[in-house]
Amino acid sequence: MGKVYPDAKSAMAGILQDGQTILSGGFGLCGIPSALIDAIAASGVKGLTVVSNNAGIDNEGLGKLLRTHQIRKMVASYVGENGEFERQYLAGELEVEFNPQGTLAERCRAGGAGIPAFYTKTGVGTAIAEGKPTAVFDGETYLQERGIFGDVAIVHAWKGDTEGNLIYRHTARNFNPVMATAAKITVAQVEHLVPAGTLDPDSIHTPGIFIKRIVELPQGYEKLIEKRTTRKRDAA
């Protein structure tokens, strides 16, 4: 069977299990694989560990999985726009592992590159460092961080071909490339699906070798805006 699936539900079928670690690309609502998140919600799997920069907002993006209590643990760097995330964390209903944003990105990149651990100065002497090994290099103390490699990764791309090669668009690239490499199975949703061999090789951000399944979003797919910022028009 080829990599292309007719919809998000079929693309996620047969690969989800309770207790898995799922990596999700996106930043806020920008570049999130929302159709694949909806498919995870519909599957009913629970006890998930989800790795993502944040958890969307209330009732959108990963916020949907929080609402249904399918997430047991979040590995994230930011929670400020999601009231339900905050409520569950403070109530002891959700385990949270906070990471500096750059550290989280590098943990996923390292996992995808087969690097089990690396050292960074970020977090030394703070609560982030509790229980983690340290080492001294050139007279400076560095903190050991482990690479992250999950069971399933879900990503959003602007364009992809039928072999799974992906191109991201502007800021929607964000965490998607590093998440795409750091799991046993990566599923991509794309806005535009084109035949294999039609993408400029120099423009490809994620090679198709990393993508196991791909689905094209339907026409009219709504991309949500987390915070709409506008400026006044100049007077006519």
UniProtKB/TrEMBL annotation:
Q: Which UniProt keywords apply?
A: Transferase
From what organism does this protein derive? Rhodovarius crocodyli
Q: What is the lineage of its organism?
A: Bacteria, Pseudomonadati, Pseudomonadota, Alphaproteobacteria, Acetobacterales
Instruction: State whether keyword Transferase applies.
Output: yes
Q: Read off the Gene3D superfamilies from this record.
A: Glutaconate Coenzyme A-transferase (3.40.1080.10)
UniProt keyword Transferase, yes or no: yes
Q: Which InterPro entries match?
A: 3-oxoacid_CoA-transf_A (IPR012792), CoA_trans_fam_I (IPR004165), NagB/RpiA_transferase-like (IPR037171)
One Pfam family, please name it.
CoA_trans
- Output the SUPFAM superfamilies linked to this UniProt entry: NagB/RpiA/CoA transferase-like
Q: Name one GO molecular function term.
A: CoA-transferase activity
Q: What is the protein name given in its UniProt record?
A: CoA transferase subunit A
- Domain of life per record: Bacteria
